[in-house]
């Protein structure tokens, strides 16, 4: 199994689509995620995945998936 550090080093130069297309890399990336459910001020419940670094401080990436259609 890949460690998070080796995954990040290997994937840093790859596009996200390339990482997700490789089942081994995608599985290693998903192994460290925690499922989180949030309730918005409007009362909607949304689910997300949270990845935390092994040590802090660490760099961060926020990925917001567009849910209302195609981004053009």
Description of the structure:
The chain has helices at residues 4-11, 16-21, 23-31; strands spanning 33-39, 45-51. The radius of gyration is 15 Å and the shape is globular. Strands 1-2 form a two-stranded antiparallel sheet. It is 32% helix and 19% strand. The chain has three helices and two strands, in the order H-H-H-E-E. The mean pLDDT is 75. The chain has a domain at 4-51. It is α+β, with helices and mostly antiparallel strands and 72 residues long. The longest helix is centred in the middle third of the chain and has 9 residues, at 23-31.
Helicity level: 25-40%
* Spans where pLDDT lies below 50 across 5 or more residues: none
**How many beta-strand segments?**
2
What is the overall silhouette? globular
What is the radius of gyration?
A: 15 Å
Mean pLDDT: 75
Order of helices and strands: HHHEE
Determine the structural class based on helices, strands and strand pairing.
alpha+beta
Strand content: 15-25%
**Largest beta-sheet characterization:** 2 strands, antiparallel
How far apart are the termini? 37 Å
Number of H- or I-type helical stretches: 3
Strand order of the main beta sheet, please? 1-2
């Amino acid at each position: 199994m890949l460690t998070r550090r080796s995954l990040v080093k290997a994937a840093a130069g790859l596009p996200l689509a390339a990482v997700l297309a490789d089942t081994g890399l995608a599985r290693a990336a998903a192994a460290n995620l925690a499922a989180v459910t949030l309730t918005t001020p409007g009362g909607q419940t949304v689910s997300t995945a949270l990845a935390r670094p092994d040590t802090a401080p660490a760099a961060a990436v926020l990925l917001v998936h567009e849910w209302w259609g195609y981004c053009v």
